[in-house]
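Running this now, will post back.
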Amino acid sequence: MLRIHFTGDDLAGVRMAARPDVLWETILSFHRLRDRRGPMVFGEWRSETRARLNGETRLLGALVPSRGYFPDFLTPPQGILGLDEGLEAIRATPSARLHHELALLACDRAGSRVLPAPLAALAEGCQEQLSRLVGTLRSYHRAAVEPQWPYIQARVEADRAVRGRAVLDGGADELLATLPPMLRWRAPVLEADYPVDREVRLDGRGLLLQPSYFCRGTPVMYRNQELQPVLVYPITHTDAPVCSEPGGTSLGKLVGHTRSAVLHAIGDGSTTSELARRAGVSLASASQHAGVLRDAGLVVTLRHGNSVLHTLTPLGAALLGAGAQQVLCYARNGPVTS
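Update: finished.
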């Protein structure tokens, strides 16, 4: 069981991450690559990723066991800024921290507690091994995460929209109460099923909530409680991504002023009722147009209480002038549970 203890100052300091964290997604995707759970959501991704992986992943496998602890330095806060910034932060990890966290990894190893030679060299601050690790992470990210990134962004943004509404409805207390079911808010403690028993006291530092596409089953926190507290939690998977080139039949449906007005009306998030009111159409028409936009990969829809919440995908935002996208990622019709 994980128990996170809040003070009044901690509740005031609860924050939502502005976007997906590229290194958390990279490391957690490596877990998903090696397990067989969630085949409807991750099955096709696993097959495609394995086909693209031509490089060496042994070093990453030694650093990130299929279960248990992996070093905190692999997911620095700079990962929220992008891959280059995150990898540079890893490269700048002090030797003393490398040594300490890899010693913890050795203690958790089943059987022999002796680190493999590459990790032993890394623990001693070997810059050559650190550069090799950075290169391995970059190559793995390019094969496993980068092709999925527009969809990951869309799903995380949809979760953020749901949490944002909870904050508007009832503040941080409501936000914590509406997190996914594996997290239980029993004020002033947030509980979750966890591989080990942990008591985390925020002591006025607040908490950063980081929704994650590749996190599954249980949330994740840094082992080192002196680091700024971050809770990485799984988003709700309702469908599996399928990628195709732009210009398919779904995009051909996107003509006419009404549908354009609906796309603009979604903005930062909109229920179907709000969408109908903003676009000046009936509830049935708003639902139908949102469905076409969703099929075309421009909108993500999540259930929020008794209603549904529509948000723009990166491609939807691009169509409204936010930038160009090269790949259209859209979801199959119908719910899928992971």
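The first strand starts at residue 2 and ends at 5. More later if anyone needs it.
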